[in-house]
Amino acid sequence: MREPRRLLESASELNVLERRLLRSASKIAPPAGAKRVIWLGIAGKVSVAAAGAGTATYSGLLLTVVKSAGVGVLLGAASIAGVQGLGALQAPAAKPNQANVRVAATAPAPPFTPAKVPSERVEPALASAPEHATTSKRTERAALASNAGSSFARTNAALPAAPASNSPSNENAEAASASLQREALALASARARLRAGDAAASLTQLNALERDFPRGLLVQERDALTIEALRATGQLPLARTRAAAFLARFPGSPHAESARRVLAE
Amino acid sequence: MTFEQVYEQNFEFVWRSLLRLGVPQHDLDDVTQEVFLVVHRRLQDFAARSKVTTWLFTICLRAAKDRRRRAHTRREIPDSDGLELVRDEGLDVQASLERRDDEWLFHQVLARMDWDQRAVFCLFELEGMNGQDIAEALEVPLGTVYSRLRLARVAFRRGVVLITAQRASAYLREEPA
Predict the structure, then answer these.
(1) Does ipTM top 0.95?
(2) How many domains does chain A contain in total?
């Protein structure tokens, strides 16, 4: 079986936005400090587990306890995280003491030997503060304007991204992309109507969508929304029938859970 | 290979894999820790019949599935905005916002993808793993990997259009005439 080419290696398979998203996703990295914090957490847990539940009350004397239990650890970062307490991790401010106490290995697991806290890659990192949920309108607009694939944000007409060349395969891809964008816009509009409380109008639009795009790519989203609209217009038996059909066709869909909820009503 | 070496060389891979498998950011540290605790317990049994990353991904898969099951049992409500990804990129605010936006969009798209397809897509397209290794990690035939990849690519394109259309639609509603 021949291995397909990766999308990012293929010049013509992605539009500008798809390429940008994939590139950004491939560069994602953990937040600064995460590697060290997690390492210390692991060290703490391994030390505690190794010390055994039968030992004296866990205390700041972990070093002594572990030594006397004869656990096979080279106590460096492990002892520090352990002494900090059970799972109460703090971001280490300084490199932990690398000292230390080597004792005979008796634990079945591989010896936990943190000779040093693993180094952090100095890279742009993810931090914990959520900002997308509250992205300002200006940011949202800037983002939309910068997305080559969202030209319809400005024109309301579904325009595909500029082609790299006029080859037949590009033209086909362009047509498919334009069709998909029309389908997506119609679906977004039906969703907006449903959210605005006009379930009947939404349902009409969804039926039209089904007629216009019988083999549409957004069939899962369309069906899920149709089920919701049917339910909202009081057609629960029909909603259930559609939900059962949906589950049979797309059991692993992200919308499967909401279909199951309708069935359970 | 010592545990420390495995951690040193693969921490980011595990972290990224869990993120892409849908582990929410607030649980990522814990689940990453769980994965490495399993690695620590089982490293002796790892006979290097497969690549370390393949083995690690198998553990990530189980950990992410467990986490999903626990969330389901707790009836946790998924965050509708998906992942909260923020990079600290110094002074280039515009570039930072754009990157942040791209990451957020990508994870919104990923969140809509079928779980099995998502795993194949990320391993193949983002981690550069080959089909055979993915088949091993997921314990499925190679043909299934390629078939999931094909479907995942369609889902990716569909998701990108859908998400951007939703945002565009919201934008147009808010924009004064």
Answers:
(1) no
(2) 2
